[in-house]
Design goal:
Rossmann fold; homodimer
């Protein structure tokens, strides 16, 4: 037989912009999602898991004038020969699939339909530092309820969720605004020109970054940005820009004061008054349930998504300070956002269906909790490692691990080549093992085992004096029958309970 | 402005072969995966979550002689213009990504590396009834351990896992076989010809379906199958086929008897003897930990995957009977399988790395538990629904739901149009609500609420006589202050505790 031509070895690499998650990274996220799902379920929301793959048509990203769909989504033609069959794509968020699901199953689903969804989404975008092409979203939406009680409910649920995952009251705030108020402001400004309105909306979206003075410049003649580029302005006069700025800065000491400022800003506009009234209702509904301004506030400076949503918008911010890359203090910032979008299902059915919902940035929330030291402690503890001193007595070692597990202790036997004991201890170290179990011929003959406290050992190695070292031996010998009890005692001395 | 040309409405449909999962379908699977992860973790396995997307090269499905990868995987060229850049693909299992991950991160990972992974995989195959193009896998593998102690450990873990998710001892069995024993049999048969060996392997894989007589036919002249098609045989004489059949049917009353039969079947073959010795070791290691033949047995009739694996293979079967589509009794069958495959990482690094692992068919296991009525009860209970009798008093209704939730009870307010009370009751019914709360003007004036027991109501509507109906009123009136206590009492009367 002819020698087959060697194919080059494949590269062992994730595709650009993708990454692997190991151990505690996975389990901590899973625990958080479970906690969040518990809160959502208590509010009557039902789980939905739609497939990762949708038709591109259903996602609504297909441009009819190009052969391939434009960037942003991962897409492919279903049939081998391109052009035949549907184009399929990976979902880029959880809202577009919700619209498809609701339109497809609306006869069987309850209305209103409260649903939550958690899972990865994919973006075919240029990856950057900390920016991946696959990441988690965690959404809750109410479809088919026009009442602002639905918006108020989601704000309350968001506050409950943050507290449930470990953000104490006082360390977060849910801020609420309303697109209709802004529409009212634009109306009293007399901005009839669609393009100019759109430009004002885009400008408002930058308020977070550029502040009041920046927004004034951008609404007027334009602005030199930090990179030295000149950004054209919308071309309004300073007087014309006033109502917009009044809107953005109308937050008062109390909700009443804020609402009075907003009422003034929208003047005679009917839609504006409707928006103010909605905010008023939301504040009342929340207040009645005990969600005061220490948790949820009416705040017209919330601009994220104002261009996208059609009614109330809301955003959750963590208010404690962290150090940024350069060691400067700054607020942690936004971890969740959402709002009302009433045209969700219309694309499919022609009928407008009101909807409101929130998306939690799970990975940002995890980062915040890690930053505050509220997760990442016990969960990361490795298993007890039973070392192998005599490879013919594997059954005994497996039984030890088995007994420990039966008592709820994470435990494993070293399964590599047992020849070199140093390698076994290096392995235990790499596994983050709190305790190593050792039973050689001598121990076996005497009916005992050696237990090495690796956490204590590491502490001693780092800092202890000789005296301390003698007083607190990091290795103890116990009768074989006391193995489980002693290991549990050593673990609890380090604050490690039995495995979950 | 010219009227824009109407684009046709997109179809609200999942792509062919994909489906949505709702409510309890999602939460029951999540609970099962969590339970399984708990067992895996207790055995020292660490979570790994690799991306859904891999390079096609890393997955190893790329055929160099075709422009597009062959069917089986969903794949696309990374760059807009085809041919440029990598081909990317959705993973079709969790083992190929493990090989890539281990090769990529082997310097930082412990060796042996025990990892578990759970998540969807995708197959670009023709969908069929109950066969989807996205489904869950749940794997545990040990990489870098050549010892059969690793195989024994996974068998024990598999038994523990089945019991943890609710399959009682006696309703399952883990069966173990070894590819090396089969290799020994082929060796003593003198089958040197690669193609003939491959044909024998393919035949053995059909033992499950066609039984001993069928295998004899297929090893010999051939066989007329059920559909009337004639399947060519391997062309062995009856005597040549004997050792294969002896191997497949060598299970004895005890492990010792089975092993003696196998030792006879492999005769002088060194690899065969090695295989028998491995099975012997596995049986001993398991026995020492208390896993007797009521849980794990040596069974040479396990053939699934014998062609793929290189050493021990194992399979978990549920042994209780269910009724099939046609009402006939049959055993539920296989829910998990795995084995040793020692060439996992070699494609990437050139070095052989031993590995062994198992994959649990989560959806089949869920189906089995539903079939036995062991899941799908309480989890499916809907929330308490607070009805809206007066839309101006929404704050009161939201507060009721809020109080119930604070006591751990799933509760929601009806957020649809409250005009028609009948619609609210229909909604409560569709939600599977156990209790509806009603407070109209009259109740409010008197400081009471009405609680409608919908589960009892449904039972009464179905079967009760008028007398019973009078004795067991399905609607009670309680003081507003007793709302939470009374609802909890009604729920517990139906065996429904507070929400998880």
């Amino acid at each position: 037989m002819a020698k087959p031509r060697k194919t080059p070895r494949p590269k062992a690499e994730t595709p650009k912009g993708f990454r692997d998650y190991f151990g505690a990274e996975v389990t901590e996220r899973a625990e958080m999602l479970e906690t969040i799902a518990g809160v959502y379920r208590r509010y009557g929301f039902e789980a939905l898991e739609s497939p990762a793959v949708e038709t591109l048509e259903a996602l609504g990203k297909y441009l009819p004038d190009v052969d391939r769909p434009h960037a942003g989504v991962f897409a492919w033609a279903e049939d081998e020969e391109e052009g035949k069959g549907d184009w399929l794509a990976l979902r880029y968020d959880l809202t577009a699939p919700l619209a498809r699901v609701y339109a497809q199953h609306r006869q069987e689903l309850p209305t209103p339909y409260r649903r939550y969804a958690m899972g990865p989404v994919w973006r075919n975008e240029k990856p950057g530092p900390g920016r991946y092409r696959q990441f988690y979203q965690c959404d809750a939406d109410t479809v088919g309820a026009g009442s602002v009680a639905a918006d108020a409910e989601i704000c309350a649920m968001l506050a409950d969720t943050l507290e449930a995952v470990g953000i104490p009251r006082g360390d977060y705030v849910v801020r609420v605004n309303n697109r209709k108020v802004l529409n009212g402001v634009l109306e009293v400004m007399g901005l009839a020109d669609e393009e100019q309105r759109a430009a004002v909306l885009r400008t408002i979206d930058k308020f977070d970054k550029v502040g009041e003075a920046g927004v004034r410049e951008l609404l007027g003649k334009g602005r030199l940005d930090a990179s030295g580029a000149y950004i054209d302005g919308v071309g309004l006069s300073p007087e014309q820009a006033d109502p917009v700025v009044a809107f953005l800065t109308s937050r008062g000491e109390t909700a009443e004061a804020t609402l009075a400022n907003l009422a003034a800003a929208v003047g005679e506009s009917a839609v504006g008054a409707e928006g103010v009234d909605e905010l008023h209702q939301i504040a009342e509904l929340l207040e009645a349930q005990g969600y005061g301004p220490d948790r949820i506030v009416i705040d017209p400076s919330v601009v994220r998504g104002l261009g996208y949503y059609t009614g109330p918008v809301y955003e959750a911010e963590l208010t404690f300070e962290i150090l940024d890359d350069k060691g400067r203090k700054r607020q942690f910032g936004s971890v969740a956002g959402g709002g009302r979008y009433d045209d969700l299902v219309k694309r499919f059915t022609g009928q407008a269906v009101p909807a409101t919902g929130v998306s939690i940035g799970v990975d940002r929330l995890l980062a915040a909790l890690r930053d505050k030291g509220r997760i990442g402690q016990g969960a990361a503890a490795g298993p007890v490692v039973v070392t192998v001193m005599d490879r013919d007595r594997m059954a005994d070692y497996l039984s030890m691990a088995s007994e420990l597990r039966a008592a709820g202790v994470r435990a494993e036997v070293y399964l590599g080549n047992p020849k070199n004991f140093g390698n076994q201890m290096k392995y235990a170290d790499r596994r983050g093992a709190p305790v190593a179990v050792i039973e050689g011929e001598d121990e076996r003959a005497r009916g005992v085992v050696q237990l090495k406290d690796l956490i204590l050992g590491a502490q001693i190695a780092e800092s202890a004096t000789l005296e301390e070292w003698k007083e607190r031996p990091s290795q103890v010998e116990v009768p074989r029958g006391d193995l489980v009890a002693k290991v549990r005692e050593m673990l609890s001395a380090h604050g490690l309970g039995p495995a979950e």
